[in-house]
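Hello forum,

I keep getting stuck at the same step: I have a sequence, I want structure tokens, and every attempt I make locally crashes halfway through. Rather than fight my setup again tonight, could one of you with a working pipeline run this one for me? It's a single chain of 85 residues.
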Amino acid sequence: MKKRAIIITSLLSLLILSNIRASSSEDELKINNIIKALTLEEKVSFCYGTGMGFRGIPRLNIPEIGCCDGPRGPNAQVGTTAFPC
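Reply #2:
Ran it on my machine without issues. Output:
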């Protein structure tokens, strides 16, 4: 019974890890395609931002990102991201 539980657990772990890898590869492919689609001007605009944020690229569905000096860090225009201190 103990061997059976170990085998089942191992197989489930392998299944989960293979799904994580597949998702990661899909995400990397999507990111690389977006980077290839950006013009030089758009890439440079991410280096300096706009005051306290970064402008969006509507044609690629990249939203504007706002930043603050406080503990919230980067946040989208809708909702916020808060990290515990």
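Strands lie at 53-54, 65-66, 75-76. If your local run keeps crashing, start a new thread with the error log.
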